[in-house]
């Protein structure tokens, strides 16, 4: 005779034999809890950072989690790893407060007057995301008045995209810069890089070279020959050729500047010998081009002076799109296309 089943027993009990509960919000809740404890009345603060006489009550764990600089400081054999009070010399009190805001809250108000210092300090303290955002902000705000200083800054911090933006502004406004203090004190290697990158003839690059040499002729005369050899001027005349029929849905533009073949700019929807420029349009009488080695970069060819100027970039990289001019709104719209991320997921094509 079969024994009766125990009361309450069922086949569903097998479901609980190896059941593991995973709280998907656990890590976020723990992080929020830790930050809440840290932020409330400076609870559990275990290190004091002194900057220009002001003391910040902070937490080694939080600083180390956000910055490799502080992680190395607190886990090394340096005296700072054991000191209760640490004095920082290479940052101002106001900028360090902004860094603390970023480390603890993930937000920071970038002000133009402090931007370059934040850029430098965020690199020194290895706050990578903040450094990259400062770089993008500086690239969008490069102008004649600060381009040489920004170029110098980007060179010191090995920031190629910001460096390129600042250099382009410098070479297209060289005539305005050649008598400024920043230009006359420019290091030789930066001047060489500017003049060898194709300077419009209208910017009188030869005069700029002479002004730089004459400012300290005794020491700089030795560079005269190498600078003149490095000089590469772009011709004044720009010829635009339409390839294909105007009635076709898409067409290519080829822009040839009177310079060496390797330096010519091709405005085309297809691959070229130089760069792949994905979109172009005419707006306000000038030619606007987006793309090239950096897909979101934009240039403008000034119809009056026939000079190329670097414009503010697109908010994000985009390929195979179209530029549309809307004169009534004094705006240019980018339509369609794909992001680099979407293209990278496609199989290779011939």
Automatic annotation (TrEMBL):
Domain BTB: 45-112
Lineage: Eukaryota, Metazoa, Chordata, Craniata, Vertebrata
Protein name: Kelch repeat and BTB domain containing 4
PANTHER family in UniProt: KELCH REPEAT AND BTB DOMAIN-CONTAINING PROTEIN 4
Superkingdom assignment: Eukaryota
Keyword Repeat attributed: yes
UniProtKB keywords: Kelch repeat, Repeat
InterPro entries for the chain: BACK, BTB/POZ_dom, KBTBD4, KBTBD4_BACK, KBTBD4_BTB_POZ, Kelch-typ_b-propeller, Kelch_2, SKP1/BTB/POZ_sf
């Amino acid at each position: 005779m079969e024994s009766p089943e125990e009361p309450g027993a069922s086949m569903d009990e097998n479901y609980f034999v190896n059941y593991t509960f995973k709280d998907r919000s656990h890590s976020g809740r723990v992080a929020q809890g830790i930050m809440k404890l840290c932020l409330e009345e400076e609870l559990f603060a275990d290190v004091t950072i002194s900057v220009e006489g002001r003391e910040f009550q902070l937490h080694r764990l939080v600083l180390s989690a956000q910055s490799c600089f502080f992680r190395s400081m607190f886990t090394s054999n340096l005296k700072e790893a054991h000191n209760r009070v640490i004095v920082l010399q290479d940052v101002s009190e106001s900028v360090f407060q902004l860094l603390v805001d970023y480390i603890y809250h993930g937000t920071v108000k970038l002000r133009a007057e402090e931007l370059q210092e934040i850029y430098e300090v965020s690199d020194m303290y290895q706050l990578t995301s903040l450094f990259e955002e400062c770089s993008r902000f500086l690239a969008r705000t490069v102008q004649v008045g600060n381009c040489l200083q920004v170029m110098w800054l980007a060179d010191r911090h090995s920031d190629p995209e910001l460096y390129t933006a600042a250099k382009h502004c410098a070479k297209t406004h060289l005539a305005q810069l050649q008598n400024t203090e920043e230009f006359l004190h420019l290091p030789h290697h930066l001047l060489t890089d500017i003049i060898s990158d194709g300077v419009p003839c209208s910017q009188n690059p030869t005069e700029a070279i002479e002004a730089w040499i004459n400012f300290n002729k005794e020491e700089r005369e030795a560079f005269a020959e190498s600078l003149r050899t490095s000089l590469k001027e772009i011709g004044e005349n720009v010829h635009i050729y339409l390839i294909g029929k105007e009635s076709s849905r898409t067409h290519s533009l080829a822009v040839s500047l009177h310079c060496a073949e390797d330096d010519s700019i091709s405005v085309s929807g297809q691959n070229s010998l130089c760069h792949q420029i994905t979109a172009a349009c005419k707006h306000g009488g000038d030619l606007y081009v987006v793309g090239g080695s950096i897909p979101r970069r934009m240039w403008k060819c000034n119809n009056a002076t026939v000079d190329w100027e670097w414009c503010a970039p697109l908010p994000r990289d985009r390929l195979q799109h179209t530029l549309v001019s809307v004169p009534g709104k004094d705006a240019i719209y980018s339509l369609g296309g794909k992001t680099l991320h979407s293209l990278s997921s496609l199989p290779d094509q011939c």
